[in-house]
């Protein structure tokens, strides 16, 4: 329990990539939540839509992993994506607070618009927004693929710089990035959901997250 007597949230995590350049500016620690209530046709993460599944992790576990990635790989921030981070708002807000405590920036991809999020009445959503440096908002529209703004899926989605930490610079104006990893015989893919990458996803298998205390780099 924390000082207020509330239980810390347990996160339902679908995937973690501890150092990526395909999910926002610089090197980032990316966390995909398990579960999204939206159903954007062409969603590139159909495995992450059901709320069942994923792996349950504490904020402290992930914070330790983030700290190791910061020290070993020089990550400058975390990126939260989905599944839908705002469907896990309490956990996402707590994770964002932990990132801030480590001096890391916070980027969030949400299928909801900023106006919808600001209209929510739950404190967790407000807390997450208050701790977010960059929000990319709105549903993914398959018919409007964005090939001009790196890291952004479709042209309807907007980039909101909610703090002064980032601005739109030439890093954003490049073609999208796809990363493919083969680690210990396991294939993982993240980044832009290009049509050419669909076949790769069919070969994707979920790699179990490391347990607490393991060398999770
Ligand atoms: S909001 Fe994101 S994760 Fe959810 S269905 Fe849309 S593209 Fe997929």
Overview of the molecule:
The protein contains five helices and nine strands, in the order βββαβαβααββββα. It is of the alpha/beta class. It has a domain at 10-143 and 156-165: TIM Barrel (Alpha-Beta Barrel). A hairpin with a 2-residue loop joins strand 8 and strand 9. Helix 2 (89-101) runs parallel beside helix 4 (123-130). Iron/sulfur cluster binds at residues 36, 38-40, 43, 45, 49, 82-84, 111, 139-140. Iron/sulfur cluster (SF4) binds next to loops.
Name the overall outline.
globular
- Approximately what portion of the residues adopt beta-strand conformation? 15-25%
- CATH fold type of the domain at 10-143 and 156-165: TIM Barrel
CATH superfamily of the domain at 10-143 and 156-165: Aldolase class I
Largest sheet: 7 strands, mixed
Q: What structural class do helix, strand and pairing data support? A: alpha/beta
Give the % helix: 10-25%
Spell the H/E element sequence.
EEEHEHEHHEEEEH
Spell out which ligands are present: iron/sulfur cluster
> What's the β-strand tally?
9
Draw up the topology in text.
Blueprint: E1 10-20, E2 28-33, E3 55-58, H1 59-73, E4 77-81, H2 89-101, E5 105-109, H3 114-118, H4 123-130, E6 134-137, E7 158-161, E8 178-183, E9 186-191, H5 198-202
Parallel strand pairs: 2-4, 4-5, 5-6
Antiparallel strand pairs: 1-2, 1-3, 6-7, 8-9
The structure holds iron/sulfur cluster (SF4).
Residues 36, 38-40, 43, 45, 49, 82-84, 111, 139-140 line the site of iron/sulfur cluster.
What would the keywords be for this entry?
5 helices, 217 residues, alpha/beta, binds iron/sulfur cluster, 21% helix
